[in-house]
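Obj: model holo form, ligand = AHM.
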Amino acid sequence: MMVNRNVRTLDEFTIQQMRDFPNATGELSNLLRDIGLAAKRVNVEVNKAGLVDILGDADMVNIQGEDVKKLDVYANNQFMGVLKHGISCAGIGSEEIDDFIAFDDPVSNNSKYVVMFDPLDGSGNIDVNVSIGTIFAVYRRVTPKGAPVTREDFLQAGIRQVAAGYIVYGSSTMMVYATRRGVNGFTLDPSIGEFSLSHPDIRCPDFGRIYSVNHGNFFRYEKPVQAYIDHCQRKDKHNGGPYTQRYIGSMVSDLHRNLIKGGIFMYPGTTDKPGGKLRLMYECNPFAFIVEVAGGRATDGTQRILDIVPTGLHQRSPLFIGSRGMMDEMDGFLGNDPD
Ligand code: AHM
Ligand code: MG
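Output (holo structure tokens):
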């Protein structure tokens, strides 16, 4: 088999990026390499999930009270393990763990980053072979190095993210990450076991034709949200349509598709859950960062997601995110001034 030497791997790419900054320490490159390694291990298990006795609920319930699948636990341990044993991460927060963890060893206490992640999002889809994903957010610690990280290092507004990304375990496995310099996508090349740059400089189109929302909740959304969804359904060729509805129920896949093709994704609050379902710190914030760097927008219906000052590691937020033009159109229905 011919190996294309012109394709850059994730490691080559991050190292090249670093060369542009003479003062860079390489810690972020290390961190991304560690995350890529954990992703490859999780990918192996996700791929064979139908073959081995790893499917089904573990004998535990996570702190949100939802069933945990065994693969969630496995993924959590992989991401936590590589970050703990690496040299760039001082502590983590995870959907699967109720409080943050300060690694608290001499190397970790002198590392500058903290990472928050959802190790296996969409895990309700594992049993039925639907794409699932990992989401992560990287922040620079705000407390001085040399001591264990504290709560303050984690409860930072999304705008302070240094990098954010996701892995989608799909028909191909991809890792997409953003820094302020851009969004780049890497597809796992099974022949060499490396993530290779396949989607350089991803831009979210200003307009798309896809809207993604759980229609089953329609009558529990607020009236302006219902009015906007109704509008999406009525779009025709005379007013920029037609729109098409796509909703996998696995946010990594739904947002990956909309990022590439253009579209809007909504998980609004409902009458019974006004705060919505999705978690701010490791679901909404990282995607808001990625989509904004790619040219799109993300709000909770009234304010920019990245400006929200968090009060809890696991707090929820409504989420409206996607192509800039579609977000502006939606703002008209929600009574917000378009950006
Ligand atoms: P999870 O973290 O328990 O997997 O839930 C998050 C998932 C998202 O991937 C997805 O967008 C959403 O839940 C779907 O929720 P619903 O089934 O209510 O539409
Ligand atoms: Mg999740």
